């Protein structure tokens, strides 16, 4: 079995460790520890510097990867936001949607919903141990808040970044699509999000 290296982004001591025992010493019992294992030193270094998305995909990731489309919606009358999400994995099409009402994120309108949709897709991959997620979105913040390119000024964007950084099993590759441009699955998740709020 190929030897792994371990990268600790948040722990008692951060950096790269060559054994699980050394890694464990620095994350065990540390609140909110962030760490991952990698097959190569380059990947571990990229994780620590935030350049992980630029690494070439491994054969395993390409073979086992999942594709997801997400979008959000908003209802001003009900003061609610929602997401629609479609995942394509191993020949299956999984549709998810959910509405949220009130709360501190409602001021972000449909963007709050799209963030929730992105996290729902990531959660599905984490729970099913899917190593790669191709995430298609139409609002730039879905990628830019996660990568740190955009500053997080609201609680919802802060939580989103924290959640993204906590991922341990899935690597996310972001893809921007133009909203309402006829992309079939992007239009489909838009309808799912609206249906969750009862506005279509």
TrEMBL record:
Keywords: Endonuclease, Hydrolase, Magnesium, Metal-binding, Nuclease
Entry-linked Pfam families: Cauli_VI, RNase_H
Top EC class of this enzyme: hydrolase
InterPro entries, alphabetized: Ribosomal_bL9/RNase_H1_N, RNase_H, RNase_H1_N, RNase_H1_N_sf, RNaseH-like_sf, RNaseH_domain, RNaseH_sf
UniProt keyword Ribonucleoprotein, yes or no: no
Catalytic reaction(s) noted: Endonucleolytic cleavage to 5'-phosphomonoester
Domain RNase H type-1: 62-198
Enzyme Commission number: 3.1.26.4
Domain of life the protein comes from: Bacteria
GO terms, biological process: DNA replication, removal of RNA primer
Cofactor(s) needed by this chain: Mg(2+)
Any one GO MF annotation of this record: metal ion binding
Family indicated by similarity: Belongs to the RNase H family.
Protein name: ribonuclease H
């Amino acid at each position: 079995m190929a030897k792994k290296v371990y990268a600790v982004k948040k722990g008692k001591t951060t950096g790269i460790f060559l054994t699980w025992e050394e890694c464990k010493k620095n994350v065990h019992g540390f609140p909110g520890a962030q760490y991952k294992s990698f097959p190569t030193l380059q990947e571990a270094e990229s994780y620590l510097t935030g350049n992980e998305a630029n690494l070439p995909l491994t054969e395993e990731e390409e073979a086992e990867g999942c594709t997801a489309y997400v979008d959000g919606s908003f209802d001003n009358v009900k003061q609610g936001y929602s997401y629609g999400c479609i995942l394509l994995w191993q020949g299956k099409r999984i549709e998810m949607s959910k509405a949220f009402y009130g709360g501190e994120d409602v001021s972000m309108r449909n963007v709050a919903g799209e963030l929730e949709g992105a996290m729902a897709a990531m959660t599905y991959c984490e729970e099913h141990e899917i190593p790669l997620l191709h995430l298609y979105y139409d609002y730039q913040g879905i990628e830019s808040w996660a990568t740190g390119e955009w500053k997080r000024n609201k609680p919802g964007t802060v939580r989103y970044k924290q959640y993204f950084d906590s991922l341990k099993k899935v690597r996310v590759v972001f893809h921007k699509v133009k909203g309402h441009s006829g992309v079939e699955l992007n239009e489909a998740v838009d309808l799912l999000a609206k249906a969750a709020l009862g506005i279509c």
